[in-house]
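Researcher: Here's the sequence for the chain we discussed earlier.
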Amino acid sequence: MSCPPLESALFRRGGRGVILLLVLRIPWLRAAGLAAVAAPVMMWSEFLTMGTLRHGYNLLTRPFSDLATRGTPHADLFTLGFFFVPGLLTIALGVGLWSAIKDSAAWRAGALLVVATGVFQIAVGAFPQDPNSWIAGALHGTMAQICFAIASVAPLVLFAGSRSHVHLGPPRRLWLAAGLGAFAIEALAIALHAVTRYPDGFFQRPFTLVLTIWFLTTGVWLLRGRKFEGLSVPA
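Model: Thanks. This is the structure I predict for it:
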């Protein structure tokens, strides 16, 4: 796949007129494709490894965030591998998607939602649960709900934005199915939360699995090598 490089700027040092030309060659689409594949692989690997090692942790019913709770074993390591690094990879994916198509407002809105998902994923890790602080738990829960909500909408907005770009071969049916699935799971979880209590893992596992399908299909699409017409890479 041939992508225009990202070329940056001139840096001047004081009044000496010394100019440093820095040229960065970044194939945005390939980087975004790799990020899309790496993010869910890292998250599931981190979760299954840490969850299996954590005594008494139920892989099906307990929320992911229990493994990052302040004061618990290896919480910082889990936060790094499940929230921080995948969050940065999600942001990279969003930037790549933004670069792919320049003439669709809906597409770029969807790309911004992907970036926002990554930002709030990092925020979830930055504000972990603390058994000794109600405020920490409330803040963590708020960040997590915002992240889930944005992530459930982003695939649907990108599906709508890709409607006039079918010549690029996006996996639109899988995007639609994943988007509808994630949105339905999130909506059902919110509705039931208002009337009853349930193990968060019951909804987090299928929600994350559905989004994993979206991430992987998007990553394969970006890595496949199709020529992107109307490519716009920020300079």
